[in-house]
Amino acid sequence: MGRTVYAEERLLDYLKTLGGPDVYSVGLILGQSTAQKDFVVHLARTLPASNTDVVEEALINPATNALQDTTDNYIKSIKDIDGNLVADHAKHVSRMLPGGMWVLGIFVVGPGDCLSDSSCAQKLRSVLSTIHKNLASNIYLHGNSNHENLVLSFNSITKQYTCKSVEISTGGIFKPADWKFQKKITKWHQLEALFDLDHLFPILDEAAPHTLKRQLQDIVKKLSEIINSALIVIEGESRSPEDLIEVIGKKRKNKKDKNEDEEVDKVLQVGIYLPCGLKDKQEDVKTISCRASMRLVGELVSRTSIHQKATIEEATNAVKQDILRSLASRLELHWDSVIEEENGSPEENITLHEPPRRVFMELPQSKVTLSDYLFPGEGPQESLVLLKELLDLDFLESQVEKDVERQVDPSEFYCQNEVKTVPVDLGKETVTNSQFVLYIAGIIIAFIVVIIGILVHQLYSSKQ
């Protein structure tokens, strides 16, 4: 039995606006996958490479109409599709998707049915393979999803469509899939969580120190182990992984809505409990020589959407995926933004790094939220350009929820150098002045990375 694919009706209208009698459009299928069903929430056209300069101009001057539709937005034939360009598009779009949502495949709009032509079908399989390799290279950003990939072929002349699925990882063949457009494909359960970060990571004293990029990659790896071992509790209840999320969702339904035909979606609050690490034995404790340490402090906001019949296990995995994807996305964006490695002088024993904060937008006619990441000083207008470029969506600034995560006040962190610390009585609920600064920052900021140059190597050398 083949897969069944459910897509929102508005996406059919979108397909009808693409392609033409002698040109093609290609793009990504975005949504949520289950064992036998796929729920498509959006179709995002891939802009050709010729639009790169146009997009850069729009980023510099958002007031221009640089992203207006032209014939350059199309390709002449299937063989002209740039697989690397589509794969790169998939990478950037994946950063914007909540946990549990994936790039499910690709769509092609143009004259004829490209899946009926063997050479065209082979080209599309090659494009899917390139996407798969690109996404699989970073499990923290894109997870380890093993779902089958979809290919939707839409005839721009007859307005007929055909869908097939293929498992690229095994080199399988195309199989028929039943694609259905519906007004409402499922009831989405909304999950929201706040993840507090306050972790100290030692930077080993090595002959050849790692770059900032490598250090942050190592931190993501360590945090992934912590997050994957965390206990996820939804609405304060611990349930069996096989239980359905809708059982909890029904409890959250407002009594006033019982007689209404359509239920009002409620946001389910998620609690995240990290392992305390008490299993470590005394003999496992080691003394290591460090040249510095990196402290990661902040509060990360997670929002996910799960289909109506999802299990607690699926919901739990989606929350963890969302946290890891958001964390990896903003750290990757941050190290890409660093022009050169910092070689600070010894007296500069604190360096503050501010990765971008997360903002949210709801898809049209949907409760599913997408994300973007804004660096300090950036505003919603930057997100509007990116949404048009990557998702082919037009938003207003007022539709960007930009104040969920807040920016840090750097003075709160640099001033701690001037604060003298005192011992903490573990039997009392007290903290030192310097600890208080970090604690408050963990509440008011979106997400920051503080690199504290401890330079304790000399201390260890003197003791030896």
TrEMBL record:
Keywords: Membrane, Transmembrane, Transmembrane helix. It is found in: Membrane. GO terms for cellular component: endomembrane system; membrane. Pfam families: ODR4-like. Its main location: membrane. InterPro entries: ODR-4-like. The keyword Transmembrane applies. Belongs to the ODR-4 family. This is Protein odr-4 homolog. The lineage of its organism: Eukaryota, Metazoa, Ecdysozoa, Arthropoda, Hexapoda. The gene is 100121663.
